[in-house]
Amino acid sequence: MAAKCLVVVESPAKAKTIEKYLGPGYRVLASYGHVRDLLAKQGAVDTDNDFYMTYEEVKRNASHIRELVKASKEA
Predict the structure, then answer these.
(1) Which residue has the higher pLDDT, 44 or 28?
(2) Quick check: 57 pLDDT over 90?
(3) Taking the mean position of all CA atoms in its chain, how far away is CA 52?
(4) Which of its termini does the chain have fewer beta carbons within 10 Å around, N or C?
């Protein structure tokens, strides 16, 4: 049976523990920290456009992001 609910936490150790408590209807995955961050250069926050923020993917977490996206589509 596929899990109907997806829970995302930061730590893989916490993910395992929480999944034990929640039971079979839940899948708990870890994000391994931030999955996106503001651009490092100036211009990440556009003060003229209601403080619109421009983000970029955290490269070291690319594989984790793909796994989270896939799991979210299945949940």
Answers:
(1) 28
(2) no
(3) 20
(4) N
